[in-house]
Design goal:
44% of the residues lie in helices and 23% in strands. It is α+β, with helices and mostly antiparallel strands and 703 residues long.
């Protein structure tokens, strides 16, 4: 309720009507358009309000609602009234801050009479604010600013006046925020422009300084822009490079590949790591490596001169090739030395035995002939074993692969391994449940396993423990790469010992033929070579894991086979040789006269009719004749352009179902289809015993 004194004071102010309000708003709009600074906008609003209402002071300030303070940059003051510019604490002047924080306008007609300011009226009067209006300005629900009117005397504020103050407050807030946004946009534009200039300068510096060749090309094959590195590398000026299509600089041998790369770019694809040769101005060529991307009508490329790197790679390749050749010659020397030593010993036994037989027969003495024959045969078998080991190492041995249960094979060898180890070594066999099958030669795997066990035994002279373990292995890209295998499913057969272990220098040479660390006379140096050759020929791998003083583990990795395991047939007992039936005829084709003679004589002894030919062409003539032929025995490596497999295939064109026995000193895998032979075809490896030959012939003919 307004006091009589307040009412009398209010009557002294001029009436506030619509014309006054309209004039003030027009002036405010004109002032807002002309003023660039936000502080000037707030001051203009304050000045218009103050002069319109004839009050002592008007101003606009920002609020800190937590600290309950107002910060005034500038306010309008009537003559004789001091400015409030600075920071003021609301609580120093009453409790009306609570109204403001709720978003309500604080209107005080007389500070002495209002309960919110009665106790602080003196402080308000000291700043010429006995009567005031504080109108909060909010943004997103927050109290952020204040438009205030102060008068040094008590004054009544009408609703029309308060509505006008609200209108001025809202317009001022909008104008201030708009001007702040404009200022911020100008600042951002200025900052962006500076950043663009800086980036442009940086890119220009990179364009000029980089040793890489940068260019922008058109889609029709011309240079639009090139950086100075092009001239540095090729010797052509920028104008010379732009004057011709870039195809004019390309080496003739690289034009076709460049056209393919350009077609990819024109289709919208990126081209990375593409190399071609560009002609220098002096006529030489430089290798350039391109990374290019199409963008709209242009192609952008980063190009690097890789000529020196390629020359270094080529030099390194030549050095590595020379080193490999040196290692190869060292291995050949070691191999031939070992072969010469071992075969000279064996040949001495064979030759000496034959000479002694000749001497005894000349003397009419036959008592010792059997002993000398036995010695010659033993030496021959040892020589055959040696060649088999060498062929295993070189992956040229004859394999007879079948679907094999490796767990069953390992368990079947347990007793043999136990006997071979002796009482000082404990043997443990750990087989994996559900072990996959593998397509391998079971006999060769047995030999490989026995070799590994014997090596492990020799590494434990004081005794120890030997473990044989099987497992399924699924090798991903990384694991397969570490083992030099294609990714996929494999089985592993590992033999580990607690012996002396091997240093890396020994591991690196462990698979070399005739390399051994055992004392003279205790090892041939072919055991691990044979294991390695067998594993590689079976499309597997061998790896050695060892630590000196801790022991060694050797693992054979063999590919999984999805078929069912074959039934193992017992070895046939060799007794009386099986003889042929009347008229059964065998064609023997071998380019080695001695071998051919022995096979033909053996066939005659067995009761077969034997026909012989020295090469594939003569053999084919016989096969194309009307002669009866029940079996073809042919060497694989025949001369004159037709090998044994080709002869067999041609023979079956004329004689479907003809039985074929290949005999060979080593297995040409490509010729023999890696062990996958057609029905009615078998392989016999030289040298062979006559009883084995008789069994194979009889089995093939009667099958």
């Amino acid at each position: 309720m307004t006091s009589p004194q307040t009412a009398r004071l209010a009557d002294s102010f001029p009436p506030f009507d619509a014309s006054i309000q309209q004039a003030a708003l027009l002036e405010l709009s004109d002032r807002f358009r002309a003023l660039p600074d936000t502080a000037d906008l707030a001051y203009a609003a304050a000045e218009i309000l103050a002069t319109t209402f004839g009050v002592s002071r008007a101003g606009y300030g920002t609020i800190d609602p937590i600290a309950e303070t107002i910060t005034v940059e500038r306010d309008w003051n009537a003559p004789g009234i001091e400015s409030l510019a600075g920071v003021l604490h609301f609580r120093d002047y009453g409790s009306y801050i609570d109204d403001l924080k709720r978003g309500e306008t604080a209107v005080v007609d007389d500070a002495r009479l209002d309960l919110r300011t009665a106790q602080t009226a003196a402080a308000l009067e000291a700043i010429s604010a006995r009567s005031f209006v504080n109108m909060p300005v909010t943004e997103q629900g927050g109290f952020v600013a204040l438009l205030y009117l102060n008068h040094e005397h008590a004054r009544a504020w009408t609703d029309a006046e308060l509505g006008f103050v609200r209108e001025i407050a809202d317009r001022t807030r909008d104008a201030v925020e708009r001007r702040r946004a404009e200022d911020e946009l100008r600042r951002l534009n200025a900052t962006l422009s500076a950043e663009v200039q800086q980036r442009t300068a940086e890119r220009e510096a990179l364009w000029q300084a980089t040793p890489d060749l940068l260019c922008v090309a058109t889609r029709d094959g011309g240079f639009l822009e090139v950086n100075p590195a092009w001239s540095d590398v090729l010797g052509w000026s920028e104008a010379e490079l732009k004057a011709q299509p870039f195809a004019a600089f390309i080496h003739a041998d690289d034009v076709a590949a460049t056209d393919v790369a350009m077609a990819k770019l024109l289709d919208g694809d990126h081209v990375f790591d593409f190399a071609n040769r560009y002609r220098r101005k002096d006529g030489d060529y430089r290798w350039l490596n391109w990374s290019a991307v199409p963008r709209g009508e242009f192609i952008y490329a980063v190009v690097r001169d890789v000529t020196d790197a390629r020359e270094q790679q080529e030099a390194l390749r030549r050095t590595e090739e020379a080193l490999r050749q040196a290692h190869k010659m060292e291995a050949v020397g070691q191999l031939t030395g070992g072969l010469a030593h071992d075969f000279n010993n064996l040949l001495a036994g064979i030759s000496g035995s034959l000479e002694m037989i000749q001497m005894r027969l000349a003397q009419g003495r036959s008592a010792d002939v059997e002993r000398y024959l036995s010695a010659a045969q033993n030496a021959t078998k040892r020589a055959a074993s040696l060649t088999h080991r060498l062929l295993a190492f070189s992956r040229r041995q004859t394999l007879s692969p079948t679907v094999t249960e490796v767990n069953k094979l390992v368990c079947g060898m347990e007793e043999l391994v136990q006997r071979s180890m002796g009482p000082a070594i404990d043997v443990e066999i750990v087989t994996s449940a559900g072990l996959w099958n593998s397509w391998i030669d079971a006999n060769q795997l047995e030999n490989a396993l026995l070799n590994l066990c014997i090596n492990a035994r020799d590494a434990m002279p004081e005794g120890g423990k030997l473990t044989i373990e099987t497992g399924n292995r699924w090798l991903d890209d990384r694991s397969a790469r570490e083992r030099d295998l294609p990714p996929g499913q494999y089985i592993s057969l590992c033999v580990s010992d607690t012996g002396t272990g091997m240093p890396k220098s020994v591991i690196d040479r462990a698979f070399d033929p005739f390399y051994t660390t055992k004392p003279i006379g205790q090892g041939t140096g072919l055991g691990l070579s044979m294991v390695y050759g067998f594993a590689r020929q079976s499309e597997g791998q061998v790896r050695i894991y060892s630590e000196v003083g801790q022991g060694t583990m050797v693992c054979i990795y063999l590919p999984r086979h999805l078929g069912e395991a074959d039934a193992l047939s017992p070895e046939q007992e060799h007794g009386e040789l099986v003889r042929g039936n009347d008229g059964e005829t065998v064609l023997v084709v071998d380019d080695e006269p001695t071998v051919r003679m022995l096979v033909v004589d053996a066939l005659h002894e067995l009761g077969y009719v034997a026909i012989e030919a020295g090469d594939g062409a003569n053999g084919l003539k016989i096969l194309q004749s009307d002669a009866r032929i029940d079996l073809l025995i042919t060497d694989v490596g025949l001369p004159a352009g037709m090998n044994g497999r080709q002869l067999a295939d041609a023979a079956r064109m004329a004689r479907p179902g003809l039985k074929v026995l290949f005999i060979t000193g080593y297995a040409e895998n490509a010729v023999l289809s890696h062990g996958h032979l057609d029905p009615g075809m078998h392989v016999l490896t030289k040298p062979f015993a006559m009883d084995m030959l008789a069994d194979r012939i009889r089995g093939l003919i009667t099958a």
